Amino acid sequence: MEIISSAHAYSPPDNYLLKCGTDQAAIAIDNRVWQGDGGSSFISSSADNSLSAVILSSPIPLLNTSRIFTRRSSYVLPVSSFGLHWLRLYFYSFSYLNFTRSAATFSVTADEYTLLHEFNPSVEGSSTSSSPNSFGNYSGFSFKEYLLNLTKSPLEISFIPSNSTSDSYAFVNAIEMVSAPERLISGDSTFTLGGGADNSSALSTPSMGFETMYRLNVGGSPVVPLNDTPGLSRTWFAEESYLASKFGVEEINSTISSILYQRAGSDENIAPPSVYSTALQINNPQETSSLGFNLSWSFGIDPNYVYFVRFHLCELEYGTGGKRHFNLFLQNQTAYSQLDLGQEFGHYSAIHIDILLRAGADDSRLLVQAGPPPNTGSNEFTEAIVNGIEVWKVSNSEGSFDRVAMSAPIKSVPGTSSSKPRVMAIAAAAAVALGMLAITMAVICYCCRQRAKVVKQPPSSTWIPLSLHRGGAHSASLISKATMASGAGSYGSLAGPSSMGRVFTFSELMDATRGFDEALVIGVGGFGKVYQGDLDDGTHVAVKRGNPRSEQGIMEFQTEIDMLSKLRHRHLVSLIGYCKENREMILVYEFMANGPLRSHLYGSNTAPLSWRQRLEICVGAARGLHYLHTGATESIIHRDVKTTNILLDENLVAKVSDFGLSKTGPALDQTHVSTAVKGSFGYLDPEYFRRQQLTEKSDVYSFGVVLMEVICARPAINPALPREQVNIAEWAMHWQTKGMLDHIIDPHLVGTVDMNSLAIFGKTAEKCLAEDGVSRPPMGQVLWNLEYALQLQHRSIAPNENIALMDHQLPMLHTVDEKWEESMQVNHSFSCGVNEDEDEAEDITMSAVFSQMVRPTNDK
Questions:
Q1: Same domain? 385 vs 524
Q2: pTM for the model
Q3: 73-87, 232-246, 250-264, 546-560 — which is least confidently predicted?
Q4: 609: CATH
Q5: Quick check: is 302 catalytic?
Q6: How do beta strands 15-19 and 33-36 pair?
Q7: Residue 435 falls within a domain, yes or no?
Q8: Which end is more exposed in the chain, N or C (fewer Cβ atoms within 10 Å of the end residue's Cβ)?
Q9: pLDDT, tens digit (0-9, with 9 covering 90-100), for 157-201
């Protein structure tokens, strides 16, 4: 038996580490030496117009310099050994001289690969950069990692400023091009791609490349490049930010020296012992199997791409086989059946299983799970175990990793410093544009004649298991077939016009926003940027313009229009109209002067809200959600309740917004809606995540997370905090169950909060965050208790007003649980109007009824 050890360190034949924009070398945190690119032969002669920049604000020493390009320019790196190579690009957004962050929009290619298209690191840094890195998350920092199969020398990496504006430029802070072990991605496995053809070597063909999306050390701490297999310098993140729930989950650990690499195809180049020596497993399977519980992770992805998913597995607990049997699942489909690691591979034996998945046109999340086989019932041998997960995006048939990239124009634009060729290029581009316009008109005419033809539905997610790396045997059976060709993105034509709302022309909205001036941007979300604007009649509006790179698309756009055209309520943001001209997807709303609730809790310079203001905001948001669940013609589940989707007007009145993910609730004879998991991580109902069964109680759970954000003034998920504090729902619940929520409240609130009010508020949030939906209260009861907490706060600050009658008319609050149970028994219903006047009547009625409950009249 051969045991691979760290003594067999990988030595890459090609190893280029470039710190851009300087002549000086630098040593990074992983102890590798990076040479400056100044004066090097690696920059092509077309980069004569490049310049260097020193970034004083950079928190990362390696990235405190940058190379700026005002024309198409390239790095040319010799390749001495063909095959797999890592290409890692580092961007830290900055402003320098007359170069602004917003103007840094550019594309990046590497030979025939299109890596990035119309990319702006200041917009897409940190929050959307999913590739694992060792620097952490900083605003404006973006890291991209690719694994490319190079077949010629040299490799030309080109940076192409956007031609959308005259001041666009490209930049890069550091470039890493390093050889990778050939066995890192197996190319000798037999598997089937679309049509049943045998493409056993597809993963090693020159046209195939990979973008690293996620790399997780499950159950353990992050593994930084310094501690990875020598020569590979990978970062393995901890999984907290992606794990659906810790319910029924336990960590297990072993010593690194115990890990055995005794199977062909498995060695430390695949993953270091530190990854295989930690794991998560299902705890107490006799309870969790009856709930259909799985270890579950959720990852954001682009639709219409093929993904290469790798599970790292190692039996750490049982010394003999027959102790566990479990399945692996992708997108709710069984990908690998009846795994018994101890029986098949032995104790401490490291293995990995690779699976290809094709994301459908509507897939914006990848659900990765391990758990008991279906219909096994309660079984002590069904606990799953996972040690690591990797997810790569596979390049499409055009060699692109960007689903909206148009590779031909990118590759055909020459770099030059003279003005005459640029004029000629512009003229040529104009000619091409006219030609394309003519072709487009012809296509439109043809489509009009063919409109009666049936449109083929987009393919759903399919997957293909590759071989299990265990001595060359291929035990993974083929379940379904997939095609590697990438289709269109989520942007398409709108199915049909909405019957409600004003239809704006694109020119009207251009005028309203001064040409979508970046200075008017008031927010950036998953759908796109939000601009403030003024219509011709003086109406102040918020204009949300869809970004073609967004994970959200035509379905969310249509849903938002359809939902809001049916709804009107004081605590729901009103939709004024929309625009779908020129393939644009733009929504126009009433303007909310004070922006999202989140900006008033943390991360901005706004004055902190008082406890009374926070309670009033929570009450308003609860009213809006209660109306959705019970007051509309059909119950509506919002599905994306969070502090950024609760907006405040000039009077700090809360209104729920963003209905792009909303769903109509279950019919009277149903208990739930079966649907794919969508929403925002950190707010997702764990029961919905596990079972894909959506109910109104899913909104209640998300609102519980909002309540904890309101009291603690911190994000729902913060990976920078200590492990036990990353997830606010778990952290705050830890203190709430101990009756010590006041220990973690926002420091601005200390000494101003009535403790009875806080107790009711905390108990309300606790009930909302119950693990099972049946244990959570309906939104109407949540609203009642928030109203009650508000009344208690009023009493503490205004004891001489009429509300002081509560002192002798209310029963003593012995325990919060008693008062909660008392409130749950109140037979109370709220009328929900469909217009502004009726909504005001609702407020009056609600207040009157509430007063009768908490301040009963004396019937002497």
A1: no
A2: 0.55
A3: 546-560
A4: 1.10.510.10
A5: no
A6: parallel
A7: no
A8: C
A9: 999 999 877 789 999 999 999 999 988 886 444 333 332 333 334
